[in-house]
């Protein structure tokens, strides 16, 4: 849990550096925070709706993976589009992309560690 918190802080630091450094000075990249918050929502909905936990795959779970993949790809594409239209500088884009990679790996690590249905789950927190 401490390592996940530390990696989340590192990812947010990259994001803030891409926005707040005097050379970059624009806060448009902060809109990727929306993608961070909506990324786990399809998984939560699929886990709540899906009642067949025995099956290796279900249509609901696959649809949740599809939507989550779309959200993650959009989060990586958004700063590239902002840099392409020159709303932000390419250095800020690189910092935001590094922050995206760290944050999404942190979210993935959280669900790998706490997402199983055993005694050590995130529902206890």
Please provide a written account of the structure.
With 125 residues, the protein is an all-alpha fold. The chain is built from 5 helices and no strands. The termini are close together. The model has no long low-confidence stretch (mean pLDDT 85). It holds the Pfam family Vps55.
Distance between the termini: 11 Å
**How would you describe the shape?**
elongated
Q: What is the count of helical runs?
A: 5
Arithmetic mean of pLDDT: 85
* Residues in β-strands, percent: under 5%
Topology as a string of helices (H) and strands (E): HHHHH
Beta strands, count: 0
Largest sheet: none
Number of domains: 1
**Cα-based radius of gyration, to the nearest Å:** 17 Å
Residue share in helices? 55-70%
Low-confidence regions: none
- Structural class comes to mainly alpha
């Amino acid at each position: 849990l401490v390592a996940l918190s530390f990696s989340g802080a590192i990812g947010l630091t990259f994001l803030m550096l891409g926005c707040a450094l005097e050379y970059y000075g624009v806060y448009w990249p902060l809109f990727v925070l929306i993608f961070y918050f909506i990324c786990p929502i399809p998984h939560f909905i699929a886990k709540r709706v899906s009642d067949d936990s025995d099956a290796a795959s279900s249509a609901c779970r696959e649809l949740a993976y599809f939507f989550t993949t779309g959200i993650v790809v959009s989060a990586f594409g958004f700063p590239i589009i902002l840099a392409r239209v020159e709303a932000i500088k390419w250095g800020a884009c690189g910092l935001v992309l590094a922050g995206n990679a760290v944050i999404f790996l942190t979210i993935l690590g959280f669900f790998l560690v706490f997402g199983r249905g055993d005694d050590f789950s995130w529902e206890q927190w």
